[in-house]
């Protein structure tokens, strides 16, 4: 080692630190000593020294000394004395030595994350002056502290990428009128006069008291970006409308509205956005507009709402209180009580989701608690202003109301009044005011023998009413969706009955049972209607021959009674016209495409037949009916929507409460039988043609030609085109048939291609061959009269040129008699 002695100090700083005196003495006392021998006297020295514990106080102090100071050792003369034996050091050498690792300043390694975040830190102040800032000054005593400076800023950045501003103080703020402020002031004054003077706090005496609330700055209300980025433009518009309506920005004395968008436009998402915004934000910085929200809905939708909250807001955003009937009655009352007394920070479940029935029963428990927002899903059930539900709901202490309804409001003034009066109590005055002001003049004006003056007055009042009312109603139709969705081809497919079906049908409607029914003597029209509907699907839905006495004569040779079938469950598709068509369709899908299809029926027995058909043809299928719980449903749906899944058929009961079921894995759908309630059918149809669908959709609504199904379908379309109210339960319809309409129902017209088309008295189709010669100027979804009408008259006919291959192949067969076609865009 040729290092000069001076360098030792660098090379062994530790050693030096331990015995600085000895070393210094050694250097000065034995200047000629060779460097390589230096170690030995040092070790010897150490032996003479008393032992010192390395952890002792002195040594610690030494180590703490900054390393740099060590350089102050006097090196004078060290170089010169060693000149002879060693080469002089060049600057490069010195530099190299000086930058040796050990001589560098300590390198900062990243600290352990956990400890680093826990340590205190001091904010470096921009204008740090010695007098004003002292980091070591103790914190001021409690009570003397000035409140933290409140920075007024919106919860979400109003200039961000996805920012949708619902309220902007620079635009929307109206100056508060004097009347609104004055009573508040006088109250405060009164309060301060009542206060005893002695109880002033120190802070108050010193003038340090925080100013309370007076001048909270106004900030923009901005939709949470996670919602804003999933909202469609029409939904943004909807949320803006809802927000303005419920915060009194449309009319200061009205805080309610009606959201009547058609199914599939995302009413739920719009309402969740509104609710979330109100719960988290207000124009007053840092405050919320509401503390609690109640969602009232049919009991079958309670879970659905809870799931939607998670779906849109994420799993941790909100814990709803969903009353889904799992708790016992006592538990439930306890929970509701707790919910209603909670306020401020103790509101841990701000959203109560409850069925109308439960809400009605427990309205008393909830009467006192202030409810910031009440959402009424399927709100058209509030159209009866006298119903118990209506009364119970109006008894609640609610500040804002939103009625959701997918069905248009009936052209009925009292219904209008009931709904709007619920949303905005007293906005239209009392029922009597309304009658005097609007209802009577309008009705009088419409009367057949009304005078011109009456008419004029009626029209005026109607315009006035609509002006008042339309401010609070938003309704958009499905058409605006077509921008985002692929084309939907919807078809009404009229299928002839199979010969066996036809015999049974004729036999049944001529039976003594039906005859006495039509004379007004029978008592079970419901049962008869049900049997006919089932027969239209497939004779296997009935228990033959028991259900139809006397039908033995028509039973085909290959017919096997149900109980004699044993393991032979093969479906005889040729017993039913509709089933034959379906069978061919499935085969064609399987052979020519990788599409998936949803099959829907009102009857679980039809699903049984479908399932048996799929089994015998080796088609993978999944089945969802009313017996299945929500989590299982979801798994099934996910399985089906998986593009890799082998199951290409999904069997769905229309009674399963299809709300929210998203079956976009399929782009074809068969509605095997019509329902009395068009809304139910619409709901079923909306499973496939909805957000996320990428392929063109083909929807087929099967109707047995000339049968009761046509009558049901006609009733449906009639209702839709009149946009009248929807009856909630199909039983209601079936119960209220006049004898005339019963007679109509129990007719069978075997000679027509479509009884429905006949009722149109369509002028666009030729009499001789039924071919359409003129397209309708505009295709209206709700009116099948404007759809394309096609008869099945062979390959050269219109059906041979239809866009859909499944229907095109039907020209070779006789089952399909006619098709109505609707193209979305
Ligand atoms: Zn026509």
From TrEMBL:
Residues 23-91 are annotated as: Disordered. InterPro entries: Helicase_ATP-bd (IPR014001), Helicase_C-like (IPR001650), P-loop_NTPase (IPR027417), Rad54_N (IPR013967), SNF2-like_sf (IPR038718), SNF2/RAD54-like_C (IPR049730), SNF2_N (IPR000330), SNF2_RAD54_helicase_repair (IPR050496). SUPFAM superfamilies: P-loop containing nucleoside triphosphate hydrolases. One of its GO terms (molecular function) is DNA translocase activity. Residues 581-734 form the Helicase C-terminal domain. The keyword Membrane does not apply. Residues 248-426 form the Helicase ATP-binding domain. It is found in: Nucleus. This is DNA repair and recombination protein rad54. The lineage of its organism: Eukaryota, Fungi, Dikarya, Ascomycota, Pezizomycotina.
